[in-house]
Design goal:
The structure is a homodimer. Chain A is an alpha/beta fold. Helix content of chain A is about 40%, strand content about 10%. Chain A has 8 helices and 6 strands. Chain A has a 4-stranded parallel sheet with strand order 4-3-5-6. In chain A, a hairpin with a 6-residue loop joins strand 1 and strand 2. The radius of gyration of chain A is 22 Å and the shape is globular. Chains A and B meet through helix 1, helix 2, helix 3, strand 2 and helix 5 of A and helix 1, helix 2, helix 3, strand 2 and helix 5 of B. Chains A, B: This is Recombination protein RecR.
Amino acid sequence: MNFSSKLLEDAVGEFSKLPGVGQKTALRLVLHLLNKEQEEVEHFGNAIIRLRKEIKHCNICHNISDHNVCEICTGNKRDKEIICVVEDTRDVMAVENTSQYFGVYHVLGGLISPMDGIGPSDLFIDSLVQRVATTPVKEVILALSATMEGDTTLFYLYKRLKDFQIPITTIARGIAFGGELEYADEITLGRSIVTRVPYETSIIR
Amino acid sequence: MNFSSKLLEDAVGEFSKLPGVGQKTALRLVLHLLNKEQEEVEHFGNAIIRLRKEIKHCNICHNISDHNVCEICTGNKRDKEIICVVEDTRDVMAVENTSQYFGVYHVLGGLISPMDGIGPSDLFIDSLVQRVATTPVKEVILALSATMEGDTTLFYLYKRLKDFQIPITTIARGIAFGGELEYADEITLGRSIVTRVPYETSIIR
């Protein structure tokens, strides 16, 4: 692209480094910002800079937080003895949005993926084992994606945790609510028949 | 969404104000930035702030520029007597990318659009007329989109400029290179037959 301004080129270059943003989209976003009030644009820029500079990770669960210990880990309505293990902060948000879970979390910071060179030592797995070993825990829920990496991580975590003699559970797999049987893949449908549940427990309360 | 951090919420909020960016995309972009080096993120934020603060518009053609007069208007290889009138800076880039045009530009800053409350006085039309009246001009090329607003603006500009007795041209409309006749709309195809050109002039040199 032929930019008429170095400043413009710079800003477009920065935006197009973002995932899924090409040069044309970047240009559209930058021109949109140019039409905004200077104050608004400064707020935008500063929000990004401050985020990166001041953000903390919870010392206990490793979730993104403004404090050294996050609000969930300090919340007095949360059951600290149930730990839900998730991949990243997006999964914490997803579970929180359901309003169905009142325990605490443990954010791994990724999944084991030999293809991407991510091994157990790159994730917060030792600190999870430490947590289970040193604090009273009555259940560990493994809420990981149903992918190859998720399953690998699941299996590894199970191996590391099984000797503690506490219940280790995973979230239920099956046909989604609103899902039609004829479009379900055969593995999901097959497992959902094998792991069928009594009708009473399937009702949403 | 349940954010575990005010800083995170702020940054996601700012990103999701951008056109075409929803909350989920905003979150993905922000988490991507969180994984970057602090220096890189600061550069990103500052590029945006500086852009809005320091950007100028060329005093002659109103294109975005780092200087009071843009590089095209000061370029000594450009024919200052041919003015290409375009809607915005994106169109300047598009024409520049063709490497087929060596005149100068005039950026209107939009198109006449009564539906959006944009009238001739909101655009740099008076300054175009002024330019034509006070500097030697041998051709005005109207390179506007082939939309309702583009045609309205075209007609208005033609009315304002026709008394200066200089050639006023518009860019050619027709079937795009690589375009198949059977998929062309009838108006374009019809006009392209009516405004047919000698074979020799249709060859790309």
